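Hey, resending since the last one bounced:
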Amino acid sequence: MAENLPNACAPVQISDDDIFTAMREISGYLDITPSDFKELYLKAYQHALSRLTRTIRVSEVMTSRVITAKPESSLAEVANLMATNHISGLPVLDSEDKPVGVISERDFLEVMVGRKSATLMEVIVQCLMGRNCLMAPIRVKSAGDLMTVPAITVLGQDSVTDVSNLFASKGINRAPVVDSHGKIIGIVSRGDLMRAASSGAAQ
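The structure tokens again:
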């Protein structure tokens, strides 16, 4: 029946504690039938994966080379940085290298269309149909005008699990990683967290 298990169930080092915790979650008399064992295994796997990802720190999966902008950077400069480096967002730093905001593709789209949750296709349609295409006005704006504030930051010692929960609750895809003084030391993305969870599952 192994082929019926979810693909996520890669080999994992399951501890006795994972199994005992899973067993306590199954109500009633535990009769080890194939169905019971499958349920037990899946619960033990979930506990093992959660335990492993709690031990992985953001500093282990973050990108240390961070592309950044200053509040006074023009939007043309910011857009060029994002396009050249093939990234969809970057932190904006003050003079002390502390994140004060974040700019993403979403911010550009929203200001060009004039409302939240705008999509690239909406921008293209408006421009092609001669409607309210706002490319010209944003040329005179700076990163400080467009960035999302405040910057949501995480610490290097934060666990992958905690940061994944933060991303989900805040609806964000990336966050600057800062030291104890608030200075940037890296950046972590949703993709980094997913790869960390996958590597944890393969251990």
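The mean pLDDT is 80.

Sorry for the duplicate.
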